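Recap quiz, item 2
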Amino acid sequence: MNSDNSKKYILNLTGTLREELQILFDSLGFEITHVDIASEELGQEATSGLALVLINSEDQLDTLIEKELLSTPMISFGEIRNRKKFFENGGVAVFNSDVMTNPVISKILENFLGADSSLQIELAYNNLLAEANSVKVMTPANIGYYSDIFANDATINQFNTSAIRNYFGAISAYLIFLHQKGIGEFPLEVDYGLNENSFLLQVHTTVTSFFDQNLWESLNKEKGNNPFGNLLDISITQCDLLNINYIQNSNKLVFTALWDKKENEAPFSSILMGDVPRYRYNLEKGFDIRTKVDIKVEKGLEELPIPGEGPTVLAANNEAVSFENLNNIIQLKLMIEFIINLRNSEKPLKPAEELELSDISSYLLYFSNQEAVAELGEDERYTILSCIKDGELFSALKEFIGENLDDEPSEDYLQGILDNLNSLTVAQTKTIVGGETIVGDEKTLVKGTVEEGDDFSRVKGAGEKEEESITLINGSGDDLQDSDVWNVKKSQIEEKVKGQWNNLIQSSGSKEELQKELVQTISGELELDEDQTQMIVTNLADKADDEELKNKMAAFKAQEVKDRLSIDKKDQDLSHRDDQIKKMKSLIDRMKTEIFTMKQAENLAQSLPKPDAENKPAISGTNEEVFKELEEQNEKLKDELNQYKQPVEAQESTVDLSKIDDPEITRQIQGLQNSLDKSNSDLKVKDKIIEKAADDSKRALENKDRLFDSVASELERYKDQASETNLAADDDEAEVDYDKFSDPEVRREIQGLANDLKKVNTQLRGKDKNLERVIDNNKRLMDKSEKKIEDLETEMIRYRDELDAYKQAPVEKVEEIDVSKIEDHEAKRTIQGLQNDLSKVNNTLKAKETALDRLNDSNKRSNEQKDRRIKLLSDETFELKKDMLNVAGSDAVPYEDFRKIEGEKQALENQLATATARISSISEKVDNTKAVDGDKLNTQIQKLTEKNQLALTTMQKFKEEKEKVDARMRNVQKELDGKDNDIQQLLQKCGELEGSSNNVDVKEIEHQLDEIKVKLRTTEDSLKKETLKAKQFEQKIKYLNATIDKNSKDKLIQQGQGKKAGGGDPALAHKMKQLEMMNSKMTQANKKNMEDLAEKKKEAVKFKTECVALKNKTQALERKLAKLASASGKKAA
Amino acid sequence: MVKTYEGFSSLENNFTSEMLEDLFAPGEVIWKKKFGNDVSILKPGDICDAEYLKKFWDRNAELNVLSKASPKNISKGHQLFLSLSEVHDVSDKNSLRSEIITWGNQLFWDDKCDCSILDLVLASYRAFYNIDKQTEANLIQSSRLLFKRSALVGSLVTYLATAIGYTDFKFLQDLYHTCFLLDYSIDNEQMSSELIEALLKEQEASGEGVRTLSKDSSVEVFIQHPRASFDLALADCAGFINQPQTLRLIKSHHEKIDSSGFPKQLNSRELSDIEALMIFVSNFVTVEHLNYTESDGAGFIKNILGENSPKMKSILSQRLIGLISKTLDNLTAGHEKYQEVVGI
């Protein structure tokens, strides 16, 4: 009710207020004015601008009604019997102040007056309730069950159980009525809590279209014919206090009832009515119109209608929606205008206030643009209804359109009209112009001849059923043809409009003028009169306007959200900036001090004699250039080095041994491949050694740095001592006894001199301190800068050494294979490639060794450099020690030292800036390198995967080959068996012939034997071939195994790299795992292949043995045949 | 009714077309290639697209499923949820609620037994899912990822709603379906990877999603979608929604309890328990939660309630923590009798 902290005024017509109330009003910032109800002062003036009017009886209410002073919300502290009258006339609460002693009630009133509400009772009544529970009432059917839950607790705690039960029954019935009318929803959320004296029960539900009127209807003392009529009255009567509240943002209707154990006999119940939306008020305001959802009523026992009329469903809603959220506002406006016009001729006219959504739907059935009607959402329908009921709202809508639409036509607007024209169909145009066709009354001949008639075409079908097949097409033929003609016309119109584009836009001061121009431009094309063309153009323009509005609203809303978010972001940024400013401020303060010191030193320097040329600062501002130069050199060296490294990395090409048939060549290649692998693995070992050496050297340098630091700190200590000595010298300044000078003039003179001396000394002390600070700063900067140079130099030396090593490394000869002897071109190429690779790898290996040596040298040099620097620093410390003695007795800072420091400072500051930039660039590079490493790793994994894939394919080929070999072996076996049989048969024949002298038979056998011998030789040859192939397979499988092993090794190395580069990237890990699995599968497959191969070998040996046996048999046969031949010869002789 | 993989005796089993009755894969579906490596074609909880799988079966490809879900758990949960539709008496409903809470308590509250949160997803799917084919196709076409996510959101919302006292089957079914319709207005044409990213980022921190959008038109679609989705769902989904008012929850699904959400910047004091629950779950579930494993369900709910991050502070109220944890932690508190939920 009052969320503002500023003073609010209350007009008290009740006389004296209870002390608790007075305190409460004071605490909420209310100021109370006491006026007597009968006083003449009580008029419009006295009641205007008030927050509340307090009364205590129905009589006072009547007086206010009489005096027409009802503009201010009222609270009555006395009983009001006609509650309906009270609330309808601006009453907000009837409060029995006797119950104020109850802290929970007091809190409810406080929340009510302070407009503080919450659905969570544990928050709203924090610390006031001993326990709280929540119950979800799912359906209207089991209310008794739920009331048992509360009654049970109430009984245990000795509250008025029957009152609680009755209350819950009545309030539930009220909510069931709302539910049935689609205003309220189930499930209900019920929270209840209690303490020693209070029992609190809160029910809430989401509502739509709920208004104050729905409350007044149920506040009657008598229900009449409608059971709904007194449900709230019963509810109020059953409890000590009922707070009815409405949370607008989330559309929650909340009933909070309280029973006070002590106040059971209270004379009347209190009722507080929160910000329940007022139906009339909303309409008058002209906004806040919102959808009422057409709730589907659930069928079932619990949904059977309850008796009585129930509440009135009011056709509006309280959920705020502004015009910005509506779609197709121009069309809405047209629809509203259309309905208003339609209603002008309606007889009998249904009063506007009685109109419902269904009426709007009926009116809109006649609206020309049915597509727009179909697109209407519920918000839009309610807006139409509300605008028809309330002219002011309609005016507001038109105003809104006027404010947001540009008057002047733009190119987008004209383009929008053309676009709309393009999407316009013939049917739509007919609807717009009221049934007329826009393509003219052209006579169209469709398969046949035009027989008669002026306005139609006669289309003939089949000859026999002439009457049925003749189709009369009014105007310009069928739809399809209309559409073709219309399309042509559209392009003609578009062309015409585009021809006059600039003229149309420039000559039209307003959109209306543009529309007129357009009508004139295109009316000739449409075969319509000007009015009809105007209708078409207006329709197109309306759509363009809608589009314009839509775009504007979208941009507006997007901007709104962005603004909100950007405010949040800005808040964060601001706090971040605050921190930054603080840091900057402290930095500026520090810098100010330094500048001040510098200035002082400069002034001092100017007062000193000019330096000798030799004494100019040793370190000049050229360090930046040195940095740059060093970096550039390093970059070049790095690039060069990478070029050298490249071929070594590229050597991992795969050799497909399966393409090479010659086993000797394969062996050689295998040998080369193995050498290459070994060299590569050596190379990796060297790399690791170099890396380790670099680490060792780094550690050694770090040790030196620590030593350097300790010397520097010693230097610092001496400086401190020097400063103390200075101060001590000042303190020891002898006091002059002025009294011994009798002449006052002399005494004054001497005193003046002494004071001057003191002043000078003080100034000098300050200068000394500043100088010390300058020296310290410079020292720090110098250290940083020198360290940087040193690092870069070391880096350069390393690159240079490595590069030199690459350049100078002697080319090591590898095992010579005379490739000229090899005929197989593929093998030759492979061997040459491998030889090259091997040479390169060996060279690289050599280079690495040299690089390692050089690195050791460079480390040595760095160490020496460090030592020299430490020595220098020690010398400086020594010098300072000496200076310390001088400082005590000398006022002047040597000019050369100062100039040196000043110059150094400037140079070092520049260097520092460069170094910082360099560091950030290096960090970036490191990040990039990391990413590149990751990519590289991925590529390598990809390569490995491809290799594995190749190996798998090869294995597959092996498998196929093996099957072929199997088949061939089987053939060989068959052949051998066949031959064996043949030979056996021949032997048998020979046996039979031994007894006979048939020469012809012997010759025949000889012939057959020859044949067998030839076949046997062929079989033997093929067996040899198979054996050879088996050998090849064996070698290939061995190679595959080597590849798999190598891949596994590579994988292990890359796993290491992967961890470095990707920091345990799960995707990489997954890929690694996949590779691992692939390798293990391949190993298994190879193992099987090997086993198969061994089997084949055994078979081959067996076949060979069989062959030999057969040969022997053949020879035996030959011998027998020879015998037979000689025997038969003898016989013949 | 549902055949699926009830008879599985081991984790890896043949995946056949008969198992397509579940829309979501019970585990990882693997194509056992004759040559070469096995290929994972569906992750656990992925949409089992019949057309997609048919291509494999048509070629006689061998598909196996490495199940992450437990048939026993799913079957039990399914039966319990389904039984809610068969009883009418409130006390019977409350007894069933008690059994459902106990079932979920053992699996997703206690971390004693290994189970997958996919068990809850599939049990809820079998019990509640009734979206018509056309709407389903639209939703899937719009974003498969969001659809898969909706299944988890829906199952968590329904289970937790049961825990805090909602026992009406139709209401729970509507709640489940509502979770699929939260972004219903963003159709296939409007949906883009940018919008999906925005939707997911918005869960992480208010405003983050909108900030990622480059076009004003996308911002408009984004900020309007709670209301537009409600309107559209109301018009389109009458076929499978029992009580259309439940769809109202769509309107507030991007609100946060600290008023940092949109469109109305509501706060926890203005929200009902069911609204607060929907806000919590729909904003809590991230893409990472969809990488289902065999044991991700153990103690899942207890763990999420214990999370203490700025994100959780903006979506999970103390009241909801109290309502859920006191119910799931005190199974002997007598809730089966009265259905009250200890709130404080």
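Residues 12-67 of chain B form one domain.
The first strand of chain B starts at residue 12 and ends at 14.
End of item.
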